[in-house]
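Supplementary notes for students who missed Thursday's class. We covered one full example, reproduced here. Read the sequence, then the structure, then the short commentary at the end.
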Amino acid sequence: LKAAHGQTLHFRASGRDAQSAVAALVALVERDFDG
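Structure (token representation):
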């Protein structure tokens, strides 16, 4: 995943774990991919 600083990212998931999967992706982005 690569995006310029300030870009808007959109995540979509489906299935039983979709909500937690999207939440995990959002958290990872907010933590700057732990970098």
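Commentary. The chain has a mean pLDDT of 90. Residues 12 and 22 are 7 Å apart (CA to CA). If anything here is unclear, bring it to office hours.
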